[in-house]
Design brief:
Radius of gyration: 25 Å
Strand content: 25-35%
Structural class: alpha/beta
Largest sheet: 6 strands, mixed
Distance between the termini: 57 Å
CATH superfamily of the largest domain: SH3 Domains
Helix content: 25-40%
CATH architecture of the largest domain: Roll
Order of helices and strands: HEEEEEEEEHEEEEEHHEHEHEHEHEH
Shape: elongated
Amino acid sequence: IGMDMVYTRLLEMKGSLRLQTEAGKGCLIELRLPVTLISTHALLLRMRDQIYALSDRGIEQILYSGAGQIQTLGNTTTYRLGNDIHELTSLETLLNLRQDPRHHNRSAPPVLLVREEAGNLRAVLVQEVLDSRDLVVKNMGQYIPQLPGIIGATILGDGSVAPVLDLPELLRARTAGQRWPTMVHHPEESASIATPHRQVVLAVDDSLSARRSLAQFVRDAGFEVRTARDGLEAIEIINNKCPDLVLADLEMPRMNGLELTAHLRANQATHTLPVIMITSRSTAKHRHEAEMVGVDTYLTKPFMEDELLEQIHRLLHA
């Protein structure tokens, strides 16, 4: 029971346990723990239209499937490399994605040889390997359920978010019968389903990563989101179709948040449009300037998500 508890705790910490016994000599117990969960070396993969990061833990070799031979015997698919035969599965299967033949056009997609927790090698078929790099990993937070094999998420150079996966844990979870919820997207069906009217929030920030993370948070809260890089771009969007609320940074090029708010208050069509300012400036001077131009709520970074959501609902239902 004690070793089982140790093993369970190790898995929670993304570590591994190896036992090796030899009659008459004793037992070797090897515990491996990551030095840090803040950063990891990972492979960047493209699968369909999503970028995934795979922690290199357990990955021993990257091959092209043409280097070996894929064979199917009954319900088991294997990958033969020389004299070695490895059980083969695809990353799509591990993530419980429906197979899509439109994304299987490559004649020799990459195969990863992965060392499982038990010590044996498994082959995992992926669609495309893009790069290998060190990444900063962020916790997924309390709003996303914990899924087997997902360490967290990372923000890429273009501001997009990629989930960070752990292949040995995905393989272990699959063997144990734990699966991700089925993820399938039918664009032709979703286009035909009428969606109820959602209130529109405009997020204005010159930082791409801040703008995208803010937009994702508001979208997850059930709102329709539009984004702008600065005040001038925001005005163009507002003139085209006025949103229900504006989230604006203070310091931006061309037109900052104070100038944007002053413009909205001077315009008859937008003078009552709610504005929440989100900025790293926390001095009384900046708060006073925001109040003078008509900002409804002033929040400082890093803000509490619950507080922001509460202020959004308060202003929209005022």
